[in-house]
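Hey, can you fold this one?
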Amino acid sequence: MTWEPQPDGLNQIITLLKQSQSTDNAIQRSVQMKLEELNQYPDFNNYLIYVLTKLKTQDEPTRSLSGLILKNNIRIHGTHLQPAIVEYIKQECLMALGDPSPLIRATVGILITTIANKGGLQSWPELLPTLCDMLDSQEYSVCEGAFGALQKICEDSADTLDSAALNRPLNIMIPKFLQFFRHNSPKIRSHAIACINQFIINRTQALMLHIDTFIENLFHLSSDEDREVRKNVCRGLVMLLEVRMDRLMPHMNNIIEYMLIRTQDPDETALEACEFWLSLAEQSICKEVLTPHLPRLAPVLIRGMRYSDIDIIILKGDVEEDEMIPDREEDIKPRFHKSRTHTQKSGNMSGQDTGARAMEANDEEDEMDDGYDDIDDDSNLSDWNLRKCSAAALDVLANVFKDDFLPILLPILKETLFHQDWQVKESGILALGAIAEGCMNGMTPHLPELIPYLISCLSDKKALVRSIACWTLSRYAHWVVSQPQNDQYLKPLMEELLKRILDANKRVQEAACSAFATLEEEACTELVPYLGFILKTLVFAFGKYQHKNLLILYDAIGTLADSVGHYLNKPEYINMLMPPLIQKWNMLKDEDKDLFPLLECLSSVATALQSGFLPYCEPVYRRCISLIQQTLNQDLACTASPGQYELPDKDFMIVALDLLSGLAEGLDGHIETLVVSSNIMQLLYQCMQDAMPEVRQSSFALLGDLTKACFQHVHPFIADFLPILGLNLNPEHISVCNNATWAIGELSIKLREDTKPFIPLVLAQLIEIINNPNTPKTLLENTAITIGRLGLVCPLEVAPSLQQFVRQWCSSLRNIRDNEEKDSAFRGMCQMITVNPVGVVPDFIFFCDAAASWMSPKSDLHEMLQKILHGFKTQVGEENWSRFVEQFPPQLSERLAVMYNI
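Sure. Predicted structure:
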């Protein structure tokens, strides 16, 4: 196809391209509108490719911009473009890949990848062969341009390139790329490694066939003089560690030596190399291969944790007081609300909490946040840098080597922690925090001296030292709280952190608020004597904080409410806390996302204050109902006429449902008057069927809480609600399934024998969940409780299936603390055993173990359990019983003898 532009049209487009580089917003907006108008003309895109590839008289930024606008057009309207125009663009791109300008080559490469992504590589069959041929060009710019495009395609389409649909082009491409590892241009060597690196993690067959050649070539390039090449070598080795450890093992000593050197590079290669230690820590051979190198590695990591001079400039580390400067909106990270999940508190034989707080069940079960992203939370500082990576690496290695690491670490810590230079001292405090989890045992004897020192660092004259001291102290909060004398550590730590919450530096305020929230979670009711003092500080901060820290302050207040519970329900505390919260609540508009953290905070406060929240509950309740109604209406409008309305942000509805749960739980029966005069049940019915799992998750939590608080209003809707709950017993969405299971149990307790018609809708799924080896702990416990409750209200219907779940049931419930839910579940089990004693016989040892897990069952439940145990003993006779008891662990025999006299 030959196409020539009209001179007028060309000039008009060039003028627009020039104008769009203006910094004036008004000009940019008008250019944007004109560009949209031009999109109506089919050959507008021809002009754009013409400017990019042919108009060499124009400056490079204008030509490149033309290509980027074309890229967006293809991304958005690609499927509607005339085939002839697309062909013309493709052919021009391939011809321009060898443009003398690196900027134009890179832009053409982006354009090629966009076309390939939009139409699929299948619809451009000549692309890959052409690019591979161009690699052999004697002209550097052609070879480099083709490689740039190939690298982008490998990044975007790694899976497709290995598919049979394309005839597995990698079988040709990978050997081809390997030939360029020794090319005389560093840029091309770097492209070649980067292309192959894309195929390591998926263990792509075509690469595995050449793995030895690849590794040999990587080693050859390890001492390359080019930074980009070395960076890609490090990246490749880090991925190979996870995928082909067997091939790296013979060279492991040399690789470790190499990475030690690279981790000290003055450029970003150091970060790539530092990832190696994070990755190695996850391998089973870590201890064996790394032990000899630890004395050299530890100081390198701790040096890597120092702020660079650039970091300090970016973090405004020399600005001590900035509390009066308003936050920029773009510095505030988007927040994600975590929907409510019903969990059990675990306990153990001695009735002591094992210190593991019930982890929230989440669809990505137990995603641990290592917390290193937050240590310098600043939008100007790249999210992940050498300092954070070094700290995270020290943390995971401390978890591997435990106290054996301390003989190496302690001398370094001694030297850095008390150093004259604040930057060195700051990195020492960070290192001390990083090893807290892994080396806690060995650190314990040093803490009586170190904790007071860290508390003194909270008033250091450098803000960055004060803020890191907050973080490190939070990592030792558990130790502080477990010391017998509160006055010695807890009180001084709390007082100093509260002062830092009112610091004149915003970064320190933020670190102190986060650390204080951690202390609250650890200390719980130990804080009760200081509540007045704590609230005074937190409420004072309301008037002082800028936007970003205000959101963290809500978290600290919510966590305080969760930690001290009903102790907050005192008139003087309520009068301090509620007015500022309600004032913020009234200021925020319905579409303001700051409502999320405020609603979460109010949800915790309402649950803690119980009846103390009554004076505030009506406006809060009404607004939640209105937020849910608005979101549902907007959702309906979008479905009815797609494209005309903006999609609603369903987080508003989710947070509102969770706050209503908090109100129902806190106000209990008092919520009845609010429920009766609203359409909450109809809204709940809609939310329970929402396509978004998090909406269903929160609506099932609310249904359970309303069932407990005012069942008379839930009752008329049971026939609508229960079938929906049955459909959501799908462990694919763990938290949805978990809350649905819990709600079924709560409903059955209220419905009693009227649960009978619904048993067939739920029992089979519950039995399947409890027997699935992949079911997470929280869901197992809730499933067991619900099966027990169904057995309590309908023993004749559930007992025949006893054999199918009794073993898993007993194993799941032995770990949870005595509570109402456990009580009702065990009563149900006793009922079912009475109806079907044969069902429990093969697994009776598990039942004995579960019965022994009670600390102090209610007397009538104790009697039921004792009756079953003695009945079994009588049934089998003394001799068989003695043989049976011989299998028990000694602890269990003692416990049963003491508790049930057997």
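Residues 348-370 have pLDDT under 50 and may be disordered. Let me know if you want another pass with a different chain boundary.
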